[in-house]
Design goal:
83% of the residues lie in helices and 0% in strands. The protein is mainly alpha-helical.
Length: 357
């Protein structure tokens, strides 16, 4: 090999590395757009059965069927969001009637009794909220809230716009993508896309069933305890469960805190604490059922992956993209497995990973 060939090889390798780094940087810069596309793909997978039903049973034209589906999804989303307004009003009213002094005295008594039981000394500073939140932080909190609402509005409209064309022109988009693929890879690519569509559709249907089961258990628990706005609280906590591992922890605190504030004007030791414990027991029962029955069934029958694989995929997604990465980790891992099986099916490692598929 001559020095000229070696130089060309080095330059080619450096150029390839540069292009990969540049591509990764551009993907990082436009990551909000990638999020919108991924969410729109999920929406289109959920909306596709509705579009098919409108076209087959009601004989809607394609564009009208898609527009009607998008409208139904908007109405459903707004309905879910607006359902939380009564909860916020009720919680605000409860907090306005709150006697902070009595509440702190009750909490102090319970904490002292609990710590005395475990031979620890009570520290009154743990009830001093000013240690954690300063009034000077209020403008920053308001600005952050307004920024979040602005970003949410832009993202919501973007997802709807992209979803509309995914639902209406999904077949055409797939054909255009296939035109960019080498002829000898078209069949593999087509098989991969069909398999991905099938697996992810079953996965999201499984998620809907999972959320429904949790919603029913939460609602029954809250109704038995007598918590106001039981159904709304149950919807919120069930939706939080979409965030793997982190979501259940957050929803636990949400359901307990909302239970406590629902009885904020009652005695802490005889009313608030017992009701909170009952709700916590019901919540833990729902989580045990979800972890040992619902999730194994969903993962085994939809994405065809071992729970340990799912755990590592979620951790990786969380490290790379935070909460959003945890949410999209399972669908993304499923896509990767399908592609690897179709294009590298003879590889021993790929065979091992995709043996369930």
């Amino acid at each position: 090999m001559t020095s000229k060939e070696i130089s060309k090889g080095i330059l080619k390798a450096v150029g390839t590395i540069f292009i990969i780094i540049l591509g990764a940087y551009l993907l990082y810069i436009i990551r909000p757009l990638i999020y919108y596309i991924l969410i729109a793909m999920i929406v289109s997978l959920i909306g596709r059965p509705i579009v098919r039903a409108l076209r087959v049973y009601l004989k809607f034209p394609p564009t009208l069927a898609v527009a009607s589906t998008i409208l139904l999804l908007i109405i459903f989303s707004l309905g879910v969001i607006s359902s939380f307004i009564p909860l916020l009003i009720a919680q605000g009213k409860n907090l306005s009637l709150l006697d902070v002094g009595v509440l702190k005295a009750n909490i102090k008594y319970v904490i002292q009794e609990a710590l005395q039981y475990v031979n620890m000394k009570y520290n009154p500073s743990i009830l001093d909220i000013s240690r954690y939140i300063s009034i000077n932080d209020l403008p920053d909190i308001i600005n952050s809230l307004l920024s979040f609402l602005s970003d949410f509005g832009i993202g919501f409209l973007s997802v709807l716009f992209i979803s509309f064309f995914f639902l209406r022109d999904g077949g055409k988009i797939m054909e255009e993508i296939l035109k960019l693929i080498p002829r000898d890879k078209i069949e593999n690519t087509r098989n991969s896309l069909n398999a991905i569509k099938s697996l992810l559709s079953r996965y999201f249907i499984g998620l809907i069933l999972q959320i429904t089961v949790l919603f029913i258990i939460y609602t029954v628990t809250l109704l038995l305890v007598g918590v106001p706005n039981a159904a709304i609280i149950a919807v919120l906590c069930a939706l939080l469960n979409l965030i793997p591992y982190l979501g259940p922890a957050v929803s636990f605190f949400v359901i307990v805190i909302l239970t406590m504030t629902g009885y904020i004007d009652s005695d802490f030791a005889t009313v608030i604490l017992p009701k909170s414990i009952y709700v916590a027991i019901g919540f833990l029962f729902a989580q045990l059922l979800d972890n040992f029955v619902n999730q194994p069934l969903i993962f085994a029958n939809s994405v065809k992956s071992h729970p340990l694989e799912i755990f590592f995929a979620i951790l990786a997604g969380g490290y790379l993209y935070g909460v959003i990465g945890m949410v999209i980790a399972i669908p993304a891992y499923t896509v990767i497995k399908v592609v690897l099986k179709e294009f590298m099916g003879n590889n021993k490692i790929v065979k091992s990973l995709t043996s369930r598929m």
